[in-house]
Automatic annotation (TrEMBL):
This is Small ribosomal subunit protein eS31. Binds 1 zinc ion per subunit. A zinc finger (C4-type) spans 17-37. The gene is rps27ae. InterPro entries: Ribosomal_eS31 (IPR002906), Ribosomal_eS31_arc (IPR022845), Ribosomal_zn-bd (IPR011332). The keyword Protein biosynthesis does not apply. Belongs to the eukaryotic ribosomal protein eS31 family. Zn(2+) binds at residues 17, 20, 34, 37. One of its GO terms (cellular component) is ribosome. Its cofactor is Zn(2+). The keyword Protease does not apply. Keywords: Metal-binding, Ribonucleoprotein, Ribosomal protein, Zinc, Zinc-finger. It comes from the Archaea.
Length: 43
């Protein structure tokens, strides 16, 4: 998925990583994960 597909009407649809700030969290079934720093939020 291209990064520009994360935006609708100029607003970000996905969550940004709280550690990195500029990276979008990947949404998995049981967690949200940052591929850059490894930050994980379990659902």
């Amino acid at each position: 998925m291209a990064r520009n597909e994360y935006y609708e009407d100029g607003k970000l649809v996905k969550e940004n990583c709280p550690r990195c700030g500029d990276t979008v969290l990947a949404d998995h079934d049981d967690r949200k994960h940052c591929g850059k720093c490894g930050y994980t939020e379990w659902k």
